[in-house]
Amino acid sequence: MSAVVDFRHRRDAAGRRPSGPTLPVSPALARYVEQVETLLAGAADEAALAARVAGALGELACERDLLTPEQRCGDADGYTRHLLYADPQGRFSVLALVWLPGQGTPVHGHTAWGAVAVHEGRPTVVLYEYEPGYGALPRQDIQCVPGEVSWVRAGIQYPHRICNVSDRPAITLHTYGRDLSRNPTGINILV
Ligand SMILES: [Fe+2]
């Protein structure tokens, strides 16, 4: 397993201690967090930011031994969210999601921009077209492989779902543009 860095001594730009839960952060995740912070500082718009964060997340997803055994655990009752990092200023959160065979989300949009990268396995991303008055119409199934990335703007008008139709577990990494340390499901808007 990779070494972990304890960020409990970290302070935000204003010198405050983080108010959310403190989590051990591996060197690879710490580098990624710094990349996201840099991208946030120079972000021109939401789409450009999400796309650039997705690129960095794809590199993180290729790191071996990124997750602890606990962060790789799934649950037979449904896909599992593991919070990896919560920005002390509430600007973004990083999660690992574990998908056992047959598990998936309902069709949803997001309350904030999001980026996703495949860490292990072959999950499927299903994209939908949002038609006001009709809901979400399936448009494209994408069979993903490790290292593959995607991103999405905030809003119900960008519906999608992720599922694992393979016979092996899958793990995806996610970064969302809001604080999910207290309410990890608060990112989804069901369509
Ligand atoms: Fe999503």
3D structure, described in words:
Strand 3 and strand 4 form a beta hairpin. This protein has one domain: Jelly Rolls, CATH 2.60.120. A five-stranded antiparallel sheet has the order 3-4-11-6-9. Strands 8-7-10-5-12 form a five-stranded antiparallel sheet, with no helix packed on it. Strands 1-2 form a two-stranded antiparallel sheet. It is an alpha+beta fold and 191 residues long. The N terminus is likely disordered. Bound molecules: fe (ii) ion (FE2).
Quick summary:
The protein is α+β, with helices and mostly antiparallel strands.
Features:
2 helices, 191 residues, alpha+beta, Jelly Rolls
Task: List the SSEs and their pairings.
Layout: E1 5-6, E2 24-25, H1 27-41, H2 46-61, E3 80-86, E4 93-99, E5 108-110, E6 114-120, E7 124-131, E8 135-143, E9 149-152, E10 155-163, E11 170-176, E12 188-190
Antiparallel strand pairs: 1-2, 3-4, 4-11, 5-10, 5-12, 6-9, 6-11, 7-8, 7-10
Helix pairs in contact: 1-2
The structure holds fe (ii) ion.
Fe (ii) ion is lined by residues 108, 110, 114, 160.
Topology as a string of helices (H) and strands (E):
EEHHEEEEEEEEEE
Oligomeric form of this entry? single chain
Helix content: 10-25%
The largest sheet, given as strand count, sense and whether it forms a barrel, is: 5 strands, antiparallel
> How many domains would you count in the coordinates?
1
Give me the number of helical elements. 2
CATH architecture: Sandwich
Structural class: alpha+beta
Mean pLDDT level:
89
| Radius of gyration from CA coordinates | 16 Å
The CATH class label is: Mainly Beta
